[in-house]
Design goal:
Layout (H helix, E strand, L loop, with lengths): L1 E2 L2 E2 L13 E4 L5 E4 L2 E8 L2 E6 L2 E6 L2 H17 L4 E6 L5 E6 H8 L8
Parallel strand pairs: 5-8
Antiparallel strand pairs: 1-2, 3-4, 5-6, 6-7, 8-9
Length: 115
Amino acid sequence: MFLHGWDVDKYSRDFSGNSAIECVDAFGAASRVSKALYLVIFSRETWWVDLEGTAYGPFPSLQDATEEGRQLAQMCAHAGRPCEVLIPDDRGRYRVVWDSDKEMRSAGGYSSSAA
């Protein structure tokens, strides 16, 4: 099944292993949409943003890649798909630095500043 260009059957689980999010389309039909995870990665001596195997970049710094990931995630969230931006710490473990669900709840809309 495709919804807004996403193969929702292929991405039926989010990063934490929870079931995908139930959404209702304009016709009242329930659909499952997974959370989009924008991962900031360091590869080939430069920074990139990865979404489901598609790389965006390169970027000269972690900060630049994080900001681009946030902007991409924000556009995706405005289209109706929940999103997160994750960056690595010094040990290579990823942490969430922007979450569309939290952004909407706390600000009543999306802000233009990075988390």
